[in-house]
Amino acid sequence: MPTLVSHPEEVKIVSSRFGKGATDIERYIELDGYQAARTAVEKGADWVIAEMKTSGLRGRGGAGFPTGMKWSFVPKQSEKPKYVLVNGDESEPGTCKDHLIFLHDPHTVIEGTIIAGLAIGAKMGFIYLRGEYRYLLEIMEKAIADAYAKGFLGKGIFGSQIDFDIISHTGAGAYEVGEESALMESLEGKRGIPRIKPPFPAVVGLYGGPTVINNAETIATVPHVLRMGGEAYAKIGSERNGGTRLFCLSGHVERPGVYELPMGYNLKKMIYEIGGGIRGGRQLKAVVPGGSSTPVLLPNEIDIGMDFDQVGKAGSMLGSGGVVVLDETVCMVEFALRTIKFYQHESCGWCIPCREGTDWLKKTLTRFHAGAGVAKDIDNIRYLAENMLGRTFCPLGDAAAMPTIAFVKKFRQEFEDHLNGKPCAYAKQKMQESVLV
Amino acid sequence: MTTEAPMKAPTIFSSELAARFDKLVALYPARRSALIPMLLYAQDEQGYVTDAAIEEIARRIGITPLDVRNVLSYYSLLRTKPVGKYHVQVCTNISCMLRGGQELFEHCKEHLGIGHKETTPDGVFSLEEVECIGACSWAPAVQVNYDFHDNLTADAMDAVLDQYRKQAGK
Questions:
Q1: Which of B32, B36, B133 to mutate to test the interface with A (most CBs of A within 10 A)?
Q2: Per-residue pLDDT tens for A190-232?
Q3: Per-residue pLDDT at B3 exceeds 70
Q4: What pLDDT score does A421 carry?
């Protein structure tokens, strides 16, 4: 069972019911559950969208698109049925927040889905969980059945004239399916290959109908926004970045864990105060601020607020909230190799720059780290990655290229230290001290 | 006039799973949406996706077995060969790597005497190095079948494996 952590600086909104037995529907109701959905049913779609726009809530999957605006793009009239699709395919290395949401507060995901459905005029919602999260799928299934039994789902929800159904769905192992169009393909029973955009899902999505796709954390936040009011929620975060988010601290910090902090919270403070600093009093070497696809930051670049705009200004991305901390013992060439190995494994093979690019990067970095690198490899690695940028249908190509470019740019000396058959300087140290104690 | 129940097609699955599949194909706006869950549930029951399972699932959905295979080959959890009773999946992706995931994988190799995607001769364990399983803040983490084990050390891993060995009666 994942350990829950706590810190006085936290502002617990999405995580407010963690560890409180809220998987039980009665307990969830006791903790103000389903109030927001009930109010939304009474006040209607326009009110919901207006509150969401005011809240400044931006998509927690990584792109940071304003949720209220996304919902308002769905056409009011549609011949084909509209759908809500919740993305719980959480697979970005460094990210484990949805894991906790499904585990501790499944009803808030259901409630958020109902509200999203109401806002866009959909009668059906899907909650897609990655295949590895089987025990969480079972929790979701039970929660959905309980919500049906209470009349919160099905025909005439909350005693209204509105019908709404939710289906929970399991994937079967694929990072690529976290991309929204590949997610729809997968839900339709196909290989998870991206679709060409436009048309965008808001116009032509699942089964050809207008579809809103939101990250599980975004959806789990929605009921809280309506309960607090959009304005109150917006005030918690920084400018144009409403509210809080779940940050998954991992790697070489003393106290790793998932912490809920206001948007714009200082990254340095997050690592040294919330996370308790670098394990064993070692020196910080680098931080991957938002999941493995986000460009690495150096120790002198982390005095920044963690919101979409400020991290963007620092040359990286807020991404999925996975803050991975690296201390001085890490070989950056090896780290770059492990990162690219993942993207090579997960590339769906549809777009050639991504399929071939990730493969050649993996081959080159493997050889390079093994001590058979030549000087021109370093520029070649960067050149290969730069030529993948923007040349693929989905962002996986960029996700592989961006961190690679940053590793070479910011740690060039370490790459050069591997040249001329020199053994990796970090390997010896690793042999001497087992990390597995 | 009496209406006769439609002839039930023979199934290779347990009656519970067959009933679940009957429901699944009718649940979605399109039958095909049930495909990936069906493949995974079939694998859970039979250990892997057998040729017979592919045939039956294709028939239930109304697509060709080739089409089923085309989808199956895309997803990393789906397999067409048997694995051990307990499939040990060690994450070595970045967050786990930083906290000893790679060493843990080496440790499992040694403990079990098998390599990546291999099975012990008694069929109890199989081992696989996997990508991120979403337990980054509790690294290093391992999944055995669908069960998560996190914050592992070499000793804790041995205890986990011993526990499963006991369960298998070996």
A1: B36
A2: 999 999 999 999 999 999 999 999 999 999 999 999 999 999 9
A3: no
A4: 79
* Lowest-pLDDT choice from A295-299, A396-400, B166-170: B166-170
Instruction: Please state the ipTM of this predicted complex.
Output: 0.95
Q: Do A173 and B76 touch (CB under 8 A)?
A: yes
Q: What is the DSSP letter of A222?
A: H
For the cut 50, the answer to whether the pLDDT of residue B1 exceeds it is no
Q: Tell me the three state secondary structure of residue A198.
A: coil
Q: What is the enclosing helix (H) or strand (E) of A288? A: strand A284-288
Residue A299 φ/ψ, nearest 5 degrees: -55, -30
Which sign, positive or negative, has the C-alpha torsion A310, A316, A319, A322? negative
Non-local (6+) Cβ contacts of B8 within 8 A are: none
Element (H, E) at A214: strand A211-215
Task: Spell out the CATH class of B86-168.
Answer: alpha beta
- Average pLDDT of chain B, as a whole number: 95
On chain A, the residues whose CB falls within 8 A of the CB of B136 are 93-96, 248, 250, 256, 322, 324
Given an 8 Å threshold on Cβ–Cβ distance, is B99 in contact with A251?
Answer: yes
Q: What is the CATH number of domain A332-436?
A: 1.20.1440.230
Chain segment A83-94, per-residue pLDDT in tens = 999 999 999 999
pLDDT digits (tens, 9 = 90+) for A10-65: 999 999 999 999 999 999 999 999 999 999 999 999 999 999 999 999 999 999 99
A294: left (phi over 0), alpha (psi -120 to 50) or beta: beta
Phi/psi of residue A128, nearest 5 degrees? -100, 120
Domain A244-327 bears CATH identifier 3.10.20.600: yes
d(CA A317, CA A319): 5
In CATH, the architecture of B15-72 is Orthogonal Bundle (1.10)
What is residue A370's DSSP assignment? I
Q: What is the pLDDT of residues B11-26, one digit of tens each?
A: 999 999 999 999 999 9
Contacts of A188 in chain B (CB under 8 A): 30, 32-33
Contact B134, A130 (CB under 8 A): yes
> Cβ A338–B36 below 8 Å, yes or no?
no
Q: What average pLDDT does the segment A56-75 reach?
A: 96
Residue A329's closest CA among A436, A427, A437? A427
CA distance B160 to chain A (A): 14
Q: Domain ranges for chain A, please list them.
A: 14-236, 244-327, 332-436
Predicted local confidence at residue A203, as pLDDT: 96
Collapsed DSSP state (helix, strand, coil) of residue B133: coil
Element holding A200 (H helix, E strand): none
CATH topology of domain A14-236: Rossmann fold (3.40.50)
Burial of A118 (0-12, 13-18, 19+ CB in 10 A): buried
At B105 the three-state DSSP class reads helix
